[in-house]
Structure formats: C-alpha cells, structure tokens
Design a protein that fits this description.
By secondary structure, this protein is an alpha/beta fold. The protein contains 14 helices and 24 strands. It folds into two domains: 252 residues, Aldehyde Dehydrogenase, Chain A, domain 1 (3-Layer(aba) Sandwich); 157 residues, 3-Layer(aba) Sandwich (Aldehyde Dehydrogenase, Chain A, domain 2). The strands form eight sheets. Strands 15, 16, 17, 20, 21 and 24 form a six-stranded mixed beta sheet that branches. A hairpin with a 6-residue loop joins strand 4 and strand 5. The radius of gyration is 23 Å and the shape is globular.
Length: 419
Amino acid sequence: MSSVPHIPVIRLGRNYESLDKLEIKNHSTGEVIATVSSVNAGIIRKDFKKIGEGRAALKKFTVKQLMDLSAKAGDLFLNGTLPFGDKGHTQTPQQYIETLSLTSGLPHVMVKRNMTKIHYALTHLDVILNGLSRGLDMSILDSGTGEQFGTKLSFFPTAAALGLVMPSNSPAVNSLWLPAIALKTPVVIKPGKEEPWTPYRLIQAFMAAGVPGEAFGFYPTDHEGAGEILKTCGRALIFGDKNTTAQYANNPAIQLHGPGWSKIIVGEDCIENWRDYIDVMVGAISDNGGRSCINASAIVVPKYAAEIADAIAQKLGPVKPTKPDDEKARLSGFANVKMADFIDAQIEDGLKTPGATDVTAKYRDGSRKVVFEGGTYMRPTVVLCDSFQHPLANKEFLCPYDRLQPRRQRHHEGPEVHR
C-alpha cells in the first residue's frame, strides 16, 4: 500500500488514475498529504455522453428510497470508515477532520461543525425537499404525473446532471448539492483545489449506502474543464469571487455563489439597545473563521458607530491563532499564502484613504497577518468607515473582516461598521 494516498478521478462510478496529478500539501509544513489525479475537458466531454447511465440507474429507485439511502450515507459520512483513494487506504471520521484541517487551515472544531451540518442535511431531506417543492407529494416525481391540491401536475427533468464547481473555503457548501441524488439527478463535481476531501468522502458514503456509482462524477480539472461542466450539464452551481461569477451573471442555468455581501442593519427603534446585539454581531463576523458567504461584511447603524465598532473590536481584536485541535479555535489558516498577502495588502492600502480606521489595531498585540507554527493567519479586522464611498466600504474577505459605518440619511450621512 502506497504511503501517500492517491485520490482518483471518479468517472461515473469508475476510478481513474491520470498521468497528470496534483499534490495537496499541509498548509503549515508543505508536506504532501495526498496526490489527486486531474483530467482535461476532453475526458469530461467523453464521459458526459454516458451521463444517461447515471440517470437511468437512479430512476430505478423511488424518491423515498433515495432519501432513505441518503440518510444512511449521512450516518456513514459522519461516523463511518470509508475508502480514501484507490491504493488501499481508508479514512475514519477523525482522519477526515485532521486531513481537511491540515490542507485547508480550518481548525478541527470548525470541521466538526461543518460535518454536523452536512449530516443534518442528509438525514432531513424530507424536510428540505418539502420546503423546496412547497409540499409536493414526492411520489409524483416517480411517475412524472399526478394530482395534488385538486390540480393535475407533471414533472420532467430539465437537465442531464447537476454540475458543480466547488470552492475550498468551507466544507458545508457541499450540502447544497445533496438533494440532487434524491431527485434522481446525477452530479458532476469539480472539487476545490485544496478541498477534494469532502465531496470525495460524500461520494464514498453514498456508494457505501447503496446509491449507484454511475450517479457520480468527480473531476479535479482546470478552468477549461470547469467551463465544460458548467456548459454541458444543463444546470449548475459555481462558487467563486466576483470576477469568476460575473462571467455567468446572465446565464439562468447557472446558480452563482459568490461574495455574500451579508449585512446587519440596526434600525432607529433598536439602536439605543445596541449593547444587547454585540455578541450576535461578533458571531456574524467571525463564526466559521469568517469564511462563510453569510458572514457579515458590514454593520450599518444610524448612530453610535464608533462605540459599537470599539465594543466589537474589544472582543475580536485579541483573537489569535491556536493549535488546530484547540476546541476554542476561532481562526483558520490559509492554504494559499498569497491570498493572505493580498487581503492584508488590500486592507492596508484602503486605510491610506482618509475616512477609515482599523479599530481592532489597538486591541491586537502585533500584526494583522501572522505566522503561527508554520501556518499563515489573518487576525480579525474591524474598520470604521465614514462613508459608503470609501474603498474599504464594499470589501469582503475570507477572514473575520467587517466594516462598521453610519447609515447615510437623506441630506445627512451617518456611520457604518465594516468587517
């Protein structure tokens, strides 16, 4: 058995080892954790001609049966020992946690939380599909036609498969594609470069639970390959920054998951009690290491902006990196150090423009960007802006960063806080 695991391409259920391989490394030490086969767009095009096999394999099951198998997969994902590559390795839940932490920088406690979210999604698909379908009787999807609420209904698939171009920042985003299997739709996945582990483990859990392997495509690939997945599947999700998602803004077949731009807005009726909301604001900024698309990118208030910014800064400013297995860890390391360099440079450059203050600086003993035990981290930054026009007023980063800004009133400009 090879000492370093190899993660193969999964070509509609079949393992495939490519001559072209990527090395996935420990974000702190640079040690190679595993190799991952990579394929080009030509392989994806060739395989997609057979995607009907995946749909046919799923069609043999009812939606109810696939929901039950998905729940079993959820338990296996959370608690099971599953194949890890094609060289005889297996992976326990703890090994999954440690591997993902080593390569992504996420501390163990955050990986565990993300695992729990995925497990919940898989074991509560009945609730999720009920919400997505507005109470549709799922048996109607089995036959294609039926009657409900006194109305005759007909459903048919509008896509050959669900294409997914996944990110590396947060494992729980994989919960978004899980309903596709219960809805008898194959998935074709390009995993994030630093995070192939979660989609791979999920596929292994599904197959171990009894879902046909033909329903799964796992294609580590380049930009051309990602584009092929988005173009050919019929329906797709893409995760990326503003520049990446902007290319597909006018394509209704592709659901975009870019910067969240989530805001906390405090109204005139609540602002006098702003102290009651500080812990909520702190959590919105820093939970999951600030990496989720729903982390608050700004807090907008009609007044007391400076006081609120300072109160948040007192709680976040002292936060510093800890060991990955620390149960109280709040920061994630950067697998791509250049990203940390870019974020730090962007903030510093923005602060040169008058009208913005890093209020966390006085509570932070040292630099914003730090190296801890070989890993690179960004410590929390709260910026007080005096205007929405400031360069830092519309920024969002993969770390605990927020702006606090007074709300602009008619004929008057009030403050705002940014993360």
